[in-house]
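Researcher: Quick test of sequence recovery. Tokens follow.
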């Protein structure tokens, strides 16, 4: 793997704007009209969200992440992709570096909706 350069510094106040929370993936389904997107239904304790993730080609069995806890960015504006609305972003590690991606997960189970930072 070729190491990417570190991005430009940001102010701590910019980091504090990100709402990163743990959630449990309760469902993983294909998105019609997309060859890469999967629709994740994620439980955040007090609500669920539909989050689209481009994991269809990254994993032999995308449904293997059902029941797993992961980290998600929640305060992105809703985005329509392939006719579906995504209400956040899944964090994973590796894709940007050409590696097989893996979920960014808490070290131990935490309550759904617990915030990072």
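Model:
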């Amino acid at each position: 793997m070729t190491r990417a350069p570190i991005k430009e510094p940001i102010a701590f106040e910019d980091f504090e704007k990100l709402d990163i929370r743990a959630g449990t993936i309760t469902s993983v389904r294909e998105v019609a009209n997309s060859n890469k997107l999967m629709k994740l239904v994620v439980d955040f304790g007090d609500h669920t969200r539909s989050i689209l993730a481009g994991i269809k080609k990254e994993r032999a069995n995308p449904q293997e992440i059902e029941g797993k806890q992961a980290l998600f960015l929640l305060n992105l504006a809703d985005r329509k992709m392939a006719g579906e609305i995504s209400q956040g972003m899944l964090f994973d590690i590796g894709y940007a570096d050409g590696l097989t991606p893996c979920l960014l997960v808490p070290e131990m189970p935490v309550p759904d909706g617990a915030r990072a930072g």
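Strands lie at 20-30, 38-43, 48-53, 69-73, 79-81, 84-86, 89-90, 92-93, 102-103.
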